[in-house]
Amino acid sequence: MMTIKKEEIEKIISGYNLQQISIGSLASHSTLDISRGAKDEGLRTVAVCKLGRERTYTTYYKTRKRGDKVLGCVDDYIILNRWEEMAEDRNLSQLKEWNTIIVPHRSFQVYLGYDVINNKLKLAVFGNRALLQVEERTGEYKLEKNQDKLVELAGIPTPKKFSSPEEIDRPVLVKATKAVGDRHFERRFPKIKSLKEYEKACARLKETGKTEEEKRVIEENFRSAPIEEYINGRKINLNFFYSPLYRELELLGTDTRWQFPNGEELAHIPVSLKESLLEKVYEMGEKLVEVCKKEYPPGIVGPFAIQTVADKDENLKAYDVCFRIPGSPDTEVSPYTVYLYDERVSFGRRIAMEIKDAIQLNMLNKILS
Questions:
Q1: 223 plus 248 within the same structural domain
Q2: Which of 97, 103, 316, 364 could form a disulfide with 308 if both were Cys (CB 3.0 to 4.6 A apart)?
Q3: Residue 265 binned pLDDT confidence (cut-offs 50, 70, 90)
Q4: Percentage of the chain lying above the pLDDT 70 cut
Q5: pLDDT tens, 214-239?
Q6: Is the backbone of residue 342 left (phi > 0), alpha (psi -120 to 50) or beta?
Q7: Residue 167 domain flag
């Protein structure tokens, strides 16, 4: 539950020099995409780094001159010993001095955690930060109206759901979150096809706990995780942007992914859909936008994605949703922004465009939280 009030954020923004806005992010996941897009729109950029993994942002892609040419996309940075230090007064003061608007991504959720994001990070965040926690399916941060409930309310097709492991009669995914220890937000989705395999998967995951309490929590979260039919089809991520300034939904791109053998993300590959699918794709996005306006006002602001799988009947079924910039820096390579803007527009640049328009229209309060 968020305790930071909109009035507090509006007060912070009122102290900003709107002619010198910086776009910032936790230095991971999509920071280079966010930073390059902001630079393309003439805005300064900030990376909030952790000691030991900062060189990508402080060295390799740091803004510098080479002759007459400017290289890189990260202008300023902060280096932390622990991610949670981002919410300490000295770092918040520095970020405010730089007139920083933070763009959230998955690592922002994972490394900071919702206690910090909802209660301590008194800083302007692009988008509706109340929607970030909606992604969680298990554990103490699961909400009653989480992503699965919103997709259901929106009437978006999904793979078949099973209410108990005893019902399993085909290959399924158990959509569990590790929930404890290092990488506690790591998603573990074992594929199984029977009650017996369900129990074995639960036991294997439980053994990753280092203490009896960790093992108890892991098992509890596994047994409360949704069980969903596994569809052996192509996975397509639908990467959208909703503008509350113009009340328009845009499809910025579509991609698919490769994973390491352990299931972790390896790479993103741009794809393009056959044109006859585009109306169905937009309808899925529009339905989710409308439900979120009602359930989590003001609803979706900016980027979001619906991850889908193609079934044998040529349908796309949603199996996951994110309510922030998706981890797809190749989105601009797919053709959809060219059709709309007559040029390629990355997520980072589209976010910067929305922020600049909001400043010009005196509507920053519509896109920040």
A1: no
A2: 316
A3: confident
A4: 96
A5: 899 889 989 999 999 999 999 999 99
A6: left
A7: yes
Q: What is the CATH number of the domain that holds 246?
A: 3.30.470.20
Torsions phi, psi for 320 (to 5 deg): -160, 150
CA 7 to chain centre: 25
d(CA 305, CA 309): 13
Same domain, 89 and 208: no
Torsions phi, psi for 333 (to 5 deg): -75, -30
Are 28 and 324 within 8 A, CB to CB?
no
Q: HSE, CB side, 13 Å, CA atoms: give it for residue 293.
A: 12
Contacts of residue 196, Cβ cutoff 8 Å, sequence gap at least 6: none
Strand partners, 256: 269
Judgement on whether residues 26 and 166 belong to the same structural domain of the protein: no
CATH of the domain at 86: 3.40.50.20
* Total residue count of the chain as it appears in this document: 369
DSSP type of residue 332: G
Structural domain boundaries, residue 183: 161-229
User: What one-letter code names the amino acid at 352?
Assistant: A
What is the number of structural domains in the chain? 3
N- to C-terminal Cα separation, the chain: 14
DSSP 56: I
Let me know if residue 362 belongs to a domain.
no
> Which of 254-288 are b and which e, b meaning 16 or more Cβ less than 10 Å from the residue's Cβ?
bbeeeeeeeeeeeebebbebeeebeeebeebbebb
Q: What is the mean pLDDT of residues 77-102?
A: 97
Q: Using a cut of 0.85, tell me whether the model's pTM lies above it.
A: yes
